[in-house]
Sequence to fold (281 residues):
Amino acid sequence: MSAATTRLPAAAGRGTSAAANWAGDGWTVTKRNLIKIKRSPDMIIFAVLQPVMFVLLFSQVYGGSISVAGTDYTQYLMAGIFAQTVVFGSTFSGAAMAQDLKEGIIDRFRTLPMSPSAVLIGRTNSDLALNGISVLIMMGTGLLVGWRVNTSFPSFLSAVGLLLLFSYSFSWVMALLGMAVRTPETINNASFMILFPITFISNAFVQSSTLPTPLRIFADWNPVSALVQAVRELFGNLGTTPVPDTWPMQHAVATVLIGSAVMLLIFVPLAVRKFESVSSR
Fold:
């Protein structure tokens, strides 16, 4: 039997429904990636150590020197840390795709009778699970340094859902970038060129009103700022902090939902098309 007619073990024996086969293929690749993460505990450890370090650094070292009008700095800070964690966590999709290309794993997947999008969905799903673990650990760390949720349980769930939705959408951007660079080593530098401006030129750690005018305008229209603002509102950490008079800041939840949908509409087809044409290095 040729490789082109060989099916993944989980796909064999399923029904003939295309949707069922697609979902099964996606789950098989997701499970493969989760097992890979389970066998690399150092990946999980370092994925959560960095945001823990940021929590302690900003809340315990810089917190006394940074004041925020209308609320305590620790309450203000945690939404920014959550947003930074999920955005940085989405880079695993790009790094893993670049590594799979280098090792020829992608070529092996393409010899199988499965949807190209299933491989990418499996990749982004496993990173969503890793981001979920990171957020839970961040919340535990935040509670230890005095952060509290001051709203209802549905609002809490909505905030977590927004964080994971944004991270999942951004994972597709990083997956496309991972297939565009020539080596896995390049993905870190390439992703930082995107991640540092959108996370640090935002309202994640300081109020945008304290920034120079060009940076303030960028921060007030930055989608990461909208995510941070939405999460602060839903966790009840905003207090009486003034909200910038721009549409994304005044309608932060809607901005995150629209922005996530736009990223999925643009980058899912682009990533699938890239997956079909890219070759191993």
User: Anything to note?
Assistant: Residues 81 and 102 are 32 Å apart (CA to CA). The two ends are 27 Å apart (CA to CA). Confidence is low (pLDDT under 50) at residues 1-13. Residues 116-144 form the longest helix (29 residues).
